Structure formats: structure tokens, C-alpha cells
TrEMBL record:
<dbReference type="InterPro" id="IPR036224">
    <property type="entry name" value="GINS_bundle-like_dom_sf"/>
</dbReference>
<dbReference type="InterPro" id="IPR010492">
    <property type="entry name" value="GINS_Psf3"/>
</dbReference>
<keyword id="KW-0235">DNA replication</keyword>
<dbReference type="Pfam" id="PF22466">
    <property type="entry name" value="PSF3_N"/>
</dbReference>
<comment type="function">
    <text>Required for correct functioning of the GINS complex, a complex that plays an essential role in the initiation of DNA replication, and progression of DNA replication forks. GINS complex is a core component of CDC45-MCM-GINS (CMG) helicase, the molecular machine that unwinds template DNA during replication, and around which the replisome is built.</text>
</comment>
<keyword id="KW-0539">Nucleus</keyword>
<dbReference type="Pfam" id="PF05916">
    <property type="entry name" value="Sld5"/>
</dbReference>
<dbReference type="InterPro" id="IPR021151">
    <property type="entry name" value="GINS_A"/>
</dbReference>
<comment type="subunit">
    <text>Component of the GINS complex.</text>
</comment>
<feature type="domain" description="GINS subunit">
    <location>
        <begin position="80"/>
        <end position="174"/>
    </location>
</feature>
<comment type="function">
    <text>The GINS complex plays an essential role in the initiation of DNA replication.</text>
</comment>
<dbReference type="InterPro" id="IPR038437">
    <property type="entry name" value="GINS_Psf3_sf"/>
</dbReference>
<feature type="domain" description="DNA replication complex GINS protein PSF3 N-terminal">
    <location>
        <begin position="12"/>
        <end position="64"/>
    </location>
</feature>
<dbReference type="GO" id="GO:0000811">
    <property type="term" value="C:GINS complex"/>
</dbReference>
<comment type="similarity">
    <text>Belongs to the GINS3/PSF3 family.</text>
</comment>
<protein>
    <recommendedName>
        <fullName>DNA replication complex GINS protein PSF3</fullName>
    </recommendedName>
</protein>
<dbReference type="InterPro" id="IPR055221">
    <property type="entry name" value="PSF3_N"/>
</dbReference>
Amino acid sequence: MHLQSAYTPNYFAIDDILATQERTPCKFLVNVPKLGVKLNPASEKDDIQPGTSLELPMWLVQPLGSGRQPVVSVELPRMYKEAYREVLKADPNAVDLHKFSLYFYELGAYAKEFDSRGDVAEILLHSFKGRFRKIMDLAHNTASDSTTQDSLDMLERMLYNDGHKARMKLNAWLISSGIPLVAANMVINHRKRKRVDIEDII
């Protein structure tokens, strides 16, 4: 996959960079000196005190919230919380995933690390499996326009565009080739051999 559209983890991927800009609620567990004003311009103290709640980008939350001694406790981004998961469980095709998040699956790959119950990983798989048939159906039967992709996240848009281009190339080849499709010699010979075997039995 190309660097500019590669999915997690890829330091040089534009999609990965944009997805990890999403801010995530977290609470500091320890005192962090000299970063109070830098991470929170509204703060009057130089240090970040334990118990301070901030929204930080996922690229920063991931190293701070993981490891044996995490600096922050991390909440799930709102689109992966129970209320949203229930909607996706009911019917993932009825959801405008674009409004949930432009990088729903990409961000979810990071968010699932902070979900000890595994609900986020489950809903990501459930949503993708439920929506994949719709995406492929759109790619094969719908003209390529922006309104078709309005409810898709960036990964789904990439799949839709690739599927639509492949369908257009196949249609162009079928029209321009002018070569009738015939059965392969192996298939013809197999049918003849089968006919001979039946005649021998009779």
C-alpha cells in the first residue's frame, strides 16, 4: 500500500497522521513539571497536577497511557462509547460513519488498546463486515460521485474508489476486446472424458 494512504502503524502515512490528531479525554495520574501552560494554556500553574483532565491528541495519549507506569488514564473517544456501539450493533449500514469520525477504523485501532473489555475491537470488526457488502455493491452498481461516499469513512472511501475503478476497467475490457469467452480446453476435454465414461457404463 502506498505510504500516503497506508494504515496503522505507519509514521509516514498521511491518513495515520490525521487520524491520530483526534483529541481523546484523559486524566493525569502523576505530577508533570513544566508542562502546565504548554498543554493547557488556561492553566495558571507551571506543573500539571494529578487529577487534571485534558483532551490530548491520540499520538500523545498512546505513549502516555501505555506501559507499566502510565502517566494518564485514558477514556475512549466518544464514537466508541457504549451508546454509539449499540447503534452500530443494531444496523451498521444505517449509520453515517462520516459523522462519527473521518478515520473511524484507523482511530479505533489505537483506541482499542485502552479498552480492556475488547468492545471496541469487536465493534470495529462487526461494523466493517456489515458495511463491506454495501460498499462493494455501491462500487459495482453506482456512478462515482461525491454524494455516494457521504456516509463512508476514509478507509471505506478508498475501498469504494478502488472497487469502482476495477469495475470500470473490467467493463471497458469486455466492450473493447471483442473476444468471445469460451471454455478452456481442459474443461472441454474433461466433459468429453466424462461422456465417454458414462457411455462405457451404459
